[in-house]
Amino acid sequence: MAAPTNHTKLGLFVITGFAAAIVAGGLLGAANFRKTTIRYHSYFNESVEGLNLGSPVKFRGVTIGNVSAIEIAPDHRMVDVVSELDTNEVKRMGLTEAGTERGTVKFAIPPDLRTQLGSQGITAVKFIAIDFFDVKSNPAPSLPFAVPIDHYIPAAPSMFKNLEDTITKAMDRLPEMVDAVVMIMGRVDRLLETLEAQDISGKAVATFERADDVMKTLQRALARIDKHDLGGKAASTMTDVDLAIGKMSKVIDRLDGERGLLASAQRATDAFGEVGRAGHGTQKDLEATLRDMSEAAESIRSLVDAIERDPDMLLKGKAKRKAAR
């Protein structure tokens, strides 16, 4: 026989489970009620396929909020994605500042902060990634409508958007590249035809043959130079030239310098000048002496002339003078 069902225990289990669910829901609701968030808008100029309500918003891999709304932007082209960020998480990152007088908190948005669509693996499930970007390569987009200044984070193109734009630009230039290749091939064909018509290949062969003959002649000339030892003779000549240059250097050294011949000649010239200046004081004495010497010379010359006329004058000069008297 089957045991009778204990309705009391079964009812108590159901009531206990129901009460536990109510308590858990209340606790979760209270936690969510105490949780404060900040809403920020980002406008994406690309498809947000795979991004859903409740998708995480991450700052360098750390979840700081979730997506609360996905709507069409006022220009009917872009997509407005609203991110609801946890205030406590934002405070931990140090990206908040005091707000209004009521004590509210707002996100201190740096000029290089951007939002970007990210993908989780290969499942194509997307999320919002917040990070810092280079302002020059990722400037803030110019939007054709007004944005909430204090609640706006500029969006940067995703990796797939950049790849798509690159491929699109390359495909747009493909016809131009094909035309350029066709034009180059046509020029190459015309050049080859010209070369064939002018027999450039035969002329090139003849040129190479002449170059080979020139190289052989040069080799023979070098062999003759080696045979007559012209290199050694040239080296000997250069040695003699070096010796001559050395001797000339020594001669120049003897002429130059404080003890050289030029300096000695200069000193001798200076000495002659000093002698001239010293002799200027005795010029009058010298002139008188020269006059006396001149008079003496005239007397001697007169005496010599008289003796030549009368050689016996020295013996009988006085007697003649007495007889004449």
Written overview of the protein:
By secondary structure, the protein is of the alpha+beta class. Among the domains are: 35-156, no CATH class; 237-277. The chain is built from 8 helices and 8 strands, in the order H-E-E-E-E-H-E-E-E-E-H-H-H-H-H-H. The strands form 2 sheets. Strands 1-4-3-2-8-7 form a 6-stranded mixed beta sheet. A two-stranded antiparallel ribbon has the order 5-6. A hairpin with a 6-residue loop joins strand 3 and strand 4 (79-86). It is elongated, with a radius of gyration of 62 Å. Residues 318-325 have low confidence and may be disordered.
Q: What's the count of strands? A: 8
State the order of secondary-structure elements, H for helix, E for strand.
Answer: HEEEEHEEEEHHHHHH
Helix content: 55-70%
- Residue stretches low in confidence (pLDDT < 50, at least 5 long) are 318-325
Strand content: 15-25%
Distinct helical segment count: 8
Overall shape: it is: elongated
Strand order of the largest sheet: 1-4-3-2-8-7
Gyration radius, to the nearest Å? 62 Å
Largest pleated sheet: 6 strands, mixed
Distance between the termini: 224 Å
Structural class: alpha+beta
Mean pLDDT over the full residue set: 74
